[in-house]
Amino acid sequence: MATVKANGVELYYEERGSGPPLLLMLGTGACIDLWTPVIERLARSYRVIAYDRRGFGSSSTEPRARIADHAVDAAALLVALEASPAAVVGWSAGGVIALDLAATFPESVTELFLAEPAVHVATHPRLGTLMMQAQSWARRYLRRDTVAAAQTMYRWASSHTTGGNAYDRLPQEWRDQMTGHAASTVREMDQLILPYPSRAAIRSITCPVTVIEGDLSDPAFRAIDAFVLRLLPRARLISLAGAAHFLHIDQPDTWVDAIVSA
Length: 262
Fold this sequence. Notes:
By secondary structure, the chain is α/β, with parallel strands linked by helices. 43% of the residues lie in helices and 18% in strands. The protein contains eleven helices and eight strands. Strands 1-2-4-3-5-6-7-8 form an eight-stranded mixed beta sheet, sandwiched between helices.
């Protein structure tokens, strides 16, 4: 197990390959194992650095961390590993942190790949989002079942508009890791409701940006992608056929191609 102390916390990380550094940032509740379908392919072109964010996976348990803390962690991690500046892939909540990193520490980022960033969620409400939030809160506060509350979000986020979801198809070990940090998950869900980073901060980003979305994702994610593209009009959009929010799991080959061919 490789760990490094960054910004006062122990972060678990793994590296693959050589070449220009590429930092992979996970979504809420996820762990490094979820990069398994793509990490070796990416390593043919990059020095890939994947890590568990604080409060998740094998990193330090810091359940009260703010979203802003994760960007500081990432900047410190890159410095500690002598990998700054790097291209950064941010998936879901990881996309929020990637945007914050590029705005706050522009010297750390050469390029951004945003895989359906869960940014400014509350300002883009959709029926599915509101229903998920209501169900999750009921399970969290009425039933006092934090695991069920987290699973409600996982299943909604990974759902396909054609039916089913990617979460229930993950290996049991991966799902166990995700539910093992349910408390961190629901707290981060609360934080993601806030409009962070600000519109001005997002507009300040000058590095190249690619937004990747799935054609089977919940409409809320496509609305958020459109919002990011309005703030960053020079960014490009890539749509993956046959993929929903768990893009790199649904369509790993085309997801890797979208990054490597940038």
